[in-house]
């Protein structure tokens, strides 16, 4: 998929994540006010700007590099759980935005190009106990 101005969402799924986290994060991404308004203040969301979103699955976000020289991915959700929650996130985001959302392919090697205008990079997460 490809988009114009908007959000590139690299979606990692943690082993403890459930449907509630997917739904919450999708709503948060749709409503997050990270785009400049007329005064240049971060105060507009994808809904305000009509911007696009591209969702790319990224299990390596849960790579643990605290020990050794090779990351451990034991905190990433197993593929079946991650795929289910990834699809749920995309469906929820499409519902909030009222449009189809292009996606990367789950489990595939992808060549992702990003022009990071700003740059603004945020980690959006909600743990199961929140």
Task: Describe what you observe in this structure.
With 130 residues, the chain is α+β, with helices and mostly antiparallel strands. The chain has one domain: D-tyrosyl-tRNA(Tyr) deacylase (D-tyrosyl-trna(Tyr) Deacylase, Chain: A, 3-Layer(bba) Sandwich). 28% of the residues lie in helices and 13% in strands. The strands form two sheets. A two-stranded parallel sheet has the order 1-4. A two-stranded antiparallel ribbon has the order 2-3. Helix 1 packs parallel to helix 3.
Summarize the SSE layout with pairings.
Layout: E1 6-11, H1 19-31, E2 35-36, E3 42-44, H2 46-49, E4 52-57, H3 79-97
Question: In CATH, what is the class?
Answer: Alpha Beta
Global mean pLDDT? 94
CATH superfamily (homologous) name: D-tyrosyl-tRNA(Tyr) deacylase
- Strand adjacency order, main sheet: 1-4
Structural class by helix and strand composition: alpha+beta
Q: Characterize the largest beta sheet: strand count, sense, and whether it forms a barrel.
A: 2 strands, parallel
Instruction: Give me the count of strands.
Output: 4
Which regions are unreliable across 5 or more consecutive residues at pLDDT < 50? none
* Helix share, percent: 25-40%
CATH fold-type name: D-tyrosyl-trna(Tyr) Deacylase, Chain: A
Shape: globular
Rg from Cα: 15 Å
Q: What descriptive keywords fit this protein?
A:
130 residues, alpha+beta, D-tyrosyl-trna(Tyr) Deacylase, Chain: A, two-stranded antiparallel ribbon, 3 helices, 28% helix
